[in-house]
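Entry 14. Structure prediction run on the chain below.
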Amino acid sequence: MTPWPGRQQGEGVHLRRVVFVIFDGFQPLDLVGPHEVFQHAGKLSGGYCCQVVAPCAGPVRSGSGLPVHAGHGVAGLDPGGIDTLVVTGGSGVDQARYDSALVGWIAAAGAGARRVTSVCSGVFLLAAAGLVTGRRVTTHWARAEQLAREHPELRVDPDPIFIRDGRVWTSAGVTAGMDLALALVEDDLGREVAHAVAKELVLFLRRPGSQSQFSVPLWSAQPRTGPLRAVLAAIHADPGARHGLADLAGHAGLSPRHLQRRFTAELGTPPAAYVERVRIEAAQRALAETDDAVETIARRYGFGTAETLRRAFRRNAGVAPSDYRNRFRSTRENA
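Output returned:
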Protein backbone atom coordinates (compact mmCIF):
# COMPACT_ATOMS: atom_id res chain seq x y z
CA MET A 1 0.00 0.00 0.00
CA THR A 2 1.04 3.60 -0.59
CA PRO A 3 2.60 4.91 2.63
CA TRP A 4 1.54 8.19 4.13
CA PRO A 5 4.55 10.45 4.79
CA GLY A 6 2.73 12.52 7.42
CA ARG A 7 5.04 15.49 6.94
CA GLN A 8 5.86 17.78 4.07
CA GLN A 9 9.17 16.89 2.47
CA GLY A 10 11.98 19.05 3.71
CA GLU A 11 9.85 20.73 6.35
CA GLY A 12 8.66 20.03 9.84
CA VAL A 13 5.09 21.08 9.04
CA HIS A 14 2.53 18.43 9.92
CA LEU A 15 -0.01 18.03 7.12
CA ARG A 16 -3.65 17.14 7.54
CA ARG A 17 -4.36 14.28 5.17
CA VAL A 18 -7.67 14.81 3.34
CA VAL A 19 -8.82 11.84 1.28
CA PHE A 20 -11.64 12.13 -1.26
CA VAL A 21 -13.56 9.01 -2.28
CA ILE A 22 -14.91 8.89 -5.84
CA PHE A 23 -16.48 6.16 -8.02
CA ASP A 24 -18.06 5.77 -11.45
CA GLY A 25 -20.97 8.18 -11.69
CA PHE A 26 -19.82 10.53 -8.93
CA GLN A 27 -20.78 14.22 -9.01
CA PRO A 28 -17.60 16.08 -10.10
CA LEU A 29 -18.38 19.26 -8.14
CA ASP A 30 -18.60 17.18 -4.97
CA LEU A 31 -14.88 16.56 -5.45
CA VAL A 32 -13.58 19.67 -7.22
CA GLY A 33 -15.34 22.26 -5.04
CA PRO A 34 -14.14 21.04 -1.61
CA HIS A 35 -10.75 20.07 -3.09
CA GLU A 36 -10.19 23.67 -4.21
CA VAL A 37 -11.14 24.98 -0.76
CA PHE A 38 -8.60 22.73 0.95
CA GLN A 39 -5.93 23.47 -1.66
CA HIS A 40 -6.34 27.23 -1.25
CA ALA A 41 -6.26 26.88 2.53
CA GLY A 42 -3.13 24.75 2.20
CA LYS A 43 -1.39 27.47 0.20
CA LEU A 44 -2.12 29.93 3.00
CA SER A 45 -1.24 27.68 5.91
CA GLY A 46 0.63 24.67 4.57
CA GLY A 47 -1.90 22.57 6.46
CA TYR A 48 -3.41 20.09 3.98
CA CYS A 49 -2.44 17.35 1.57
CA CYS A 50 -5.25 15.98 -0.61
CA GLN A 51 -5.53 12.51 -2.13
CA VAL A 52 -8.19 10.97 -4.35
CA VAL A 53 -9.08 7.30 -4.06
CA ALA A 54 -11.47 5.19 -6.15
CA PRO A 55 -12.20 1.48 -6.47
CA CYS A 56 -9.29 1.36 -8.94
CA ALA A 57 -6.59 3.93 -9.69
CA GLY A 58 -6.78 5.78 -13.00
CA PRO A 59 -9.56 7.49 -14.97
CA VAL A 60 -12.96 7.55 -13.25
CA ARG A 61 -16.01 8.61 -15.24
CA SER A 62 -18.15 11.16 -13.42
CA GLY A 63 -21.93 11.36 -13.70
CA SER A 64 -21.65 14.19 -16.24
CA GLY A 65 -19.13 12.24 -18.34
CA LEU A 66 -16.11 14.25 -17.20
CA PRO A 67 -13.22 11.84 -16.51
CA VAL A 68 -11.18 12.43 -13.36
CA HIS A 69 -7.92 10.68 -12.54
CA ALA A 70 -7.85 8.89 -9.20
CA GLY A 71 -4.30 8.69 -7.94
CA HIS A 72 -5.03 5.64 -5.81
CA GLY A 73 -7.18 2.54 -5.75
CA VAL A 74 -8.55 1.19 -2.48
CA ALA A 75 -6.29 -1.86 -2.71
CA GLY A 76 -3.21 0.33 -2.75
CA LEU A 77 -3.91 3.16 -0.32
CA ASP A 78 -3.40 2.85 3.43
CA PRO A 79 -6.74 3.65 5.15
CA GLY A 80 -4.88 4.65 8.31
CA GLY A 81 -3.61 8.09 9.21
CA ILE A 82 -6.43 10.03 7.58
CA ASP A 83 -7.41 13.34 9.13
CA THR A 84 -10.56 14.03 7.07
CA LEU A 85 -12.40 11.52 4.90
CA VAL A 86 -14.64 13.13 2.26
CA VAL A 87 -17.06 10.82 0.44
CA THR A 88 -18.60 12.31 -2.69
CA GLY A 89 -22.11 11.69 -3.96
CA GLY A 90 -23.73 11.37 -7.37
CA SER A 91 -25.99 9.00 -9.26
CA GLY A 92 -23.32 6.31 -9.15
CA VAL A 93 -23.63 5.99 -5.38
CA ASP A 94 -26.53 3.58 -5.82
CA GLN A 95 -24.17 1.03 -7.37
CA ALA A 96 -21.05 2.00 -5.43
CA ARG A 97 -22.63 1.24 -2.05
CA TYR A 98 -22.78 -2.43 -3.05
CA ASP A 99 -19.05 -2.54 -3.87
CA SER A 100 -17.79 -4.51 -0.87
CA ALA A 101 -14.14 -3.56 -1.39
CA LEU A 102 -14.95 0.16 -1.57
CA VAL A 103 -17.36 0.07 1.38
CA GLY A 104 -14.89 -1.94 3.42
CA TRP A 105 -12.12 0.56 2.73
CA ILE A 106 -14.40 3.47 3.69
CA ALA A 107 -15.31 1.67 6.93
CA ALA A 108 -11.64 1.12 7.80
CA ALA A 109 -10.64 4.66 6.84
CA GLY A 110 -13.56 6.23 8.67
CA ALA A 111 -12.95 4.21 11.84
CA GLY A 112 -9.57 5.86 12.34
CA ALA A 113 -10.15 9.27 10.76
CA ARG A 114 -10.48 12.35 12.93
CA ARG A 115 -13.42 13.50 10.80
CA VAL A 116 -15.80 11.64 8.53
CA THR A 117 -17.70 13.74 5.99
CA SER A 118 -19.94 13.38 2.96
CA VAL A 119 -21.22 15.59 0.19
CA CYS A 120 -24.72 15.12 -1.20
CA SER A 121 -25.67 11.42 -1.53
CA GLY A 122 -22.22 10.33 -0.33
CA VAL A 123 -23.94 9.77 3.01
CA PHE A 124 -25.41 6.57 1.52
CA LEU A 125 -21.87 5.17 1.37
CA LEU A 126 -21.18 6.28 4.94
CA ALA A 127 -24.37 4.51 6.00
CA ALA A 128 -23.39 1.35 4.12
CA ALA A 129 -20.04 1.46 5.94
CA GLY A 130 -21.76 1.78 9.32
CA LEU A 131 -20.15 5.13 10.09
CA VAL A 132 -23.25 7.26 10.75
CA THR A 133 -25.55 5.00 12.77
CA GLY A 134 -27.63 7.07 15.20
CA ARG A 135 -26.31 10.33 13.77
CA ARG A 136 -28.22 13.40 12.62
CA VAL A 137 -27.36 13.78 8.93
CA THR A 138 -28.39 15.65 5.81
CA THR A 139 -28.18 15.06 2.06
CA HIS A 140 -29.54 16.58 -1.13
CA TRP A 141 -33.21 17.41 -0.58
CA ALA A 142 -34.27 15.11 -3.44
CA ARG A 143 -32.73 12.04 -1.75
CA ALA A 144 -33.64 12.75 1.86
CA GLU A 145 -36.85 10.72 1.83
CA GLN A 146 -35.05 7.70 0.33
CA LEU A 147 -32.26 7.98 2.90
CA ALA A 148 -34.71 8.09 5.80
CA ARG A 149 -36.69 5.16 4.40
CA GLU A 150 -33.70 2.92 3.73
CA HIS A 151 -31.79 3.87 6.88
CA PRO A 152 -34.21 4.28 9.79
CA GLU A 153 -31.20 4.20 12.12
CA LEU A 154 -30.34 7.74 10.96
CA ARG A 155 -31.95 11.04 11.92
CA VAL A 156 -32.33 12.68 8.51
CA ASP A 157 -32.82 16.46 8.36
CA PRO A 158 -33.22 17.59 4.71
CA ASP A 159 -33.07 21.33 5.32
CA PRO A 160 -29.58 22.41 6.51
CA ILE A 161 -26.75 23.15 4.09
CA PHE A 162 -24.55 20.98 6.30
CA ILE A 163 -24.77 19.29 9.70
CA ARG A 164 -22.10 18.47 12.27
CA ASP A 165 -22.81 15.62 14.66
CA GLY A 166 -19.65 14.94 16.64
CA ARG A 167 -16.88 13.96 14.26
CA VAL A 168 -19.37 13.33 11.44
CA TRP A 169 -20.17 16.17 9.03
CA THR A 170 -22.69 15.73 6.20
CA SER A 171 -23.79 18.24 3.60
CA ALA A 172 -26.46 18.89 1.01
CA GLY A 173 -25.98 18.68 -2.73
CA VAL A 174 -23.19 19.79 -5.04
CA THR A 175 -22.06 23.34 -4.11
CA ALA A 176 -22.90 22.70 -0.45
CA GLY A 177 -19.69 20.68 -0.37
CA MET A 178 -17.79 23.97 -0.58
CA ASP A 179 -19.77 25.36 2.36
CA LEU A 180 -18.84 22.23 4.28
CA ALA A 181 -15.16 22.47 3.35
CA LEU A 182 -15.01 26.12 4.44
CA ALA A 183 -16.50 25.15 7.79
CA LEU A 184 -13.90 22.40 8.17
CA VAL A 185 -11.09 24.86 7.35
CA GLU A 186 -12.48 27.33 9.88
CA ASP A 187 -12.65 24.56 12.47
CA ASP A 188 -8.98 23.73 11.81
CA LEU A 189 -7.33 27.05 11.08
CA GLY A 190 -9.69 29.75 12.31
CA ARG A 191 -12.00 32.29 10.79
CA GLU A 192 -9.28 34.45 9.28
CA VAL A 193 -7.93 31.71 7.01
CA ALA A 194 -11.44 30.51 6.09
CA HIS A 195 -12.46 34.09 5.27
CA ALA A 196 -9.39 34.52 3.04
CA VAL A 197 -10.27 31.33 1.15
CA ALA A 198 -13.91 32.39 0.78
CA LYS A 199 -12.80 35.78 -0.54
CA GLU A 200 -10.43 34.19 -3.06
CA LEU A 201 -13.08 31.77 -4.32
CA VAL A 202 -15.91 34.36 -4.16
CA LEU A 203 -17.99 32.36 -1.68
CA PHE A 204 -20.10 33.09 1.37
CA LEU A 205 -18.11 32.19 4.47
CA ARG A 206 -21.47 31.14 5.94
CA ARG A 207 -24.26 30.92 3.41
CA PRO A 208 -27.53 32.19 4.92
CA GLY A 209 -30.66 30.13 4.71
CA SER A 210 -31.23 26.45 3.99
CA GLN A 211 -31.89 24.03 1.15
CA SER A 212 -35.50 25.15 0.88
CA GLN A 213 -34.41 28.45 -0.68
CA PHE A 214 -32.93 26.59 -3.68
CA SER A 215 -34.85 23.36 -4.18
CA VAL A 216 -37.86 22.56 -6.33
CA PRO A 217 -40.63 22.01 -3.76
CA LEU A 218 -41.04 18.40 -2.70
CA TRP A 219 -44.78 19.01 -2.29
CA SER A 220 -45.44 19.69 -5.99
CA ALA A 221 -46.75 16.23 -6.91
CA GLN A 222 -49.26 16.02 -9.76
CA PRO A 223 -52.88 15.50 -8.67
CA ARG A 224 -54.52 12.25 -9.73
CA THR A 225 -58.00 13.62 -10.49
CA GLY A 226 -59.52 16.24 -12.78
CA PRO A 227 -61.14 18.42 -10.08
CA LEU A 228 -57.81 18.94 -8.30
CA ARG A 229 -56.01 19.62 -11.58
CA ALA A 230 -58.51 22.42 -12.13
CA VAL A 231 -57.78 23.81 -8.68
CA LEU A 232 -54.01 23.81 -9.28
CA ALA A 233 -54.46 25.41 -12.69
CA ALA A 234 -56.39 28.27 -11.09
CA ILE A 235 -53.76 28.77 -8.36
CA HIS A 236 -50.83 28.83 -10.77
CA ALA A 237 -52.62 30.99 -13.34
CA ASP A 238 -53.03 33.82 -10.84
CA PRO A 239 -51.28 33.27 -7.50
CA GLY A 240 -52.48 36.62 -6.15
CA ALA A 241 -56.18 35.97 -6.70
CA ARG A 242 -58.61 34.94 -3.97
CA HIS A 243 -57.79 31.33 -3.14
CA GLY A 244 -59.65 30.67 0.06
CA LEU A 245 -61.04 27.20 0.65
CA ALA A 246 -64.49 28.17 -0.64
CA ASP A 247 -62.99 29.72 -3.79
CA LEU A 248 -60.93 26.62 -4.52
CA ALA A 249 -63.87 24.34 -3.82
CA GLY A 250 -65.81 26.26 -6.48
CA HIS A 251 -63.13 25.47 -9.08
CA ALA A 252 -63.28 21.79 -8.17
CA GLY A 253 -67.04 21.52 -7.93
CA LEU A 254 -66.70 20.05 -4.46
CA SER A 255 -67.71 21.07 -0.97
CA PRO A 256 -64.97 22.89 0.97
CA ARG A 257 -64.74 20.02 3.44
CA HIS A 258 -64.45 17.41 0.69
CA LEU A 259 -61.84 19.48 -1.15
CA GLN A 260 -59.76 19.85 2.00
CA ARG A 261 -59.65 16.07 2.47
CA ARG A 262 -58.94 15.20 -1.17
CA PHE A 263 -56.38 17.94 -1.67
CA THR A 264 -54.37 16.91 1.36
CA ALA A 265 -54.56 13.23 0.42
CA GLU A 266 -53.45 13.72 -3.21
CA LEU A 267 -50.97 16.58 -2.83
CA GLY A 268 -49.59 15.79 0.60
CA THR A 269 -50.21 19.30 1.91
CA PRO A 270 -53.32 21.35 2.84
CA PRO A 271 -54.70 23.83 0.26
CA ALA A 272 -53.68 26.93 2.26
CA ALA A 273 -50.08 25.75 2.57
CA TYR A 274 -49.93 24.96 -1.14
CA VAL A 275 -51.25 28.39 -2.07
CA GLU A 276 -48.68 30.05 0.16
CA ARG A 277 -45.85 28.10 -1.45
CA VAL A 278 -46.98 29.02 -4.97
CA ARG A 279 -47.23 32.67 -3.94
CA ILE A 280 -43.74 32.51 -2.45
CA GLU A 281 -42.39 31.14 -5.74
CA ALA A 282 -44.08 33.94 -7.67
CA ALA A 283 -42.63 36.51 -5.26
CA GLN A 284 -39.17 34.94 -5.64
CA ARG A 285 -39.32 35.37 -9.41
CA ALA A 286 -40.43 38.98 -9.04
CA LEU A 287 -37.67 39.75 -6.56
CA ALA A 288 -35.04 38.24 -8.84
CA GLU A 289 -36.30 39.66 -12.12
CA THR A 290 -37.81 43.08 -11.33
CA ASP A 291 -37.09 46.23 -9.35
CA ASP A 292 -40.59 46.30 -7.86
CA ALA A 293 -40.81 47.24 -4.19
CA VAL A 294 -41.41 44.46 -1.67
CA GLU A 295 -44.71 46.13 -0.74
CA THR A 296 -45.85 46.01 -4.39
CA ILE A 297 -44.90 42.35 -4.76
CA ALA A 298 -46.69 41.51 -1.52
CA ARG A 299 -49.96 43.05 -2.75
CA ARG A 300 -49.66 41.53 -6.23
CA TYR A 301 -49.27 37.97 -4.97
CA GLY A 302 -51.89 37.90 -2.27
CA PHE A 303 -49.88 38.65 0.88
CA GLY A 304 -51.49 42.02 1.49
CA THR A 305 -48.61 43.66 3.34
CA ALA A 306 -44.84 43.55 3.15
CA GLU A 307 -44.65 42.27 6.73
CA THR A 308 -46.91 39.31 5.91
CA LEU A 309 -44.68 38.50 2.94
CA ARG A 310 -41.55 38.72 5.09
CA ARG A 311 -42.98 36.29 7.65
CA ALA A 312 -44.08 33.84 4.96
CA PHE A 313 -40.75 34.15 3.18
CA ARG A 314 -38.76 33.34 6.29
CA ARG A 315 -41.08 30.43 7.05
CA ASN A 316 -40.70 28.90 3.58
CA ALA A 317 -37.29 30.03 2.29
CA GLY A 318 -35.36 30.74 5.47
CA VAL A 319 -34.28 34.23 4.36
CA ALA A 320 -35.79 37.71 4.15
CA PRO A 321 -37.11 38.92 0.75
CA SER A 322 -34.41 41.59 0.58
CA ASP A 323 -31.67 39.00 1.18
CA TYR A 324 -33.13 36.76 -1.51
CA ARG A 325 -33.20 39.65 -3.99
CA ASN A 326 -29.59 40.56 -3.28
CA ARG A 327 -28.49 36.99 -3.86
CA PHE A 328 -30.55 35.93 -6.85
CA ARG A 329 -31.54 38.99 -8.85
CA SER A 330 -30.86 38.80 -12.59
CA THR A 331 -27.70 40.42 -13.92
CA ARG A 332 -28.49 43.14 -16.43
CA GLU A 333 -26.21 45.09 -18.75
CA ASN A 334 -25.78 48.74 -17.90
CA ALA A 335 -27.23 51.02 -20.54
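The radius of gyration is 23 Å.
Filed with the rest of this week's runs.
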